[in-house]
Amino acid sequence: MLYNIFLVVECTVLNLFFYHLIKTNDSLKKLLVAWLVFFLIFYFYELYTLHFRAYVSTSSTVMSVEIVLVSIYFYYRLLKEEKFRQLSTYAPFWWVNGTICFYFAGMACNIFFKYLVQDVASSPGVTHSARYVVFSILNVILYACWSYSFICRYFQRTSIP
Length: 161
What we know:
Blueprint: H1 2-21, H2 26-49, H3 57-80, H4 91-111, H5 113-116, H6 130-159
């Protein structure tokens, strides 16, 4: 149940990040708010139908689809921009890069949730489910990209005269 509550916080924070990341497009801002409302309606419906007892994997998949689509839109805008950016030091690029890797692969894990969370006791020598291993690797990728993003942002702020 705790993770179900965290899912709402996660979706809200990620939408806020993208909201501030893509400041210039007012129609996208409205779309992000609409996606958040759609997610909340879907989330509470699924939570109610599961009687508040199980993980809301379909809502998590819906959130992942939205995050992946917004990330792709960010890349599209980056390609269409006239200004040249050095991607190796462009903090928003690395933040979105980690986010899209995590949520794209996480979306696949959520779609195959029932198959990846099989009982490990039935398999000798296996101590963790496949989902646990996949998400452990994805967490390393996500936080490595986010850490590098924050380091890039720090150097941008300290190198400005």
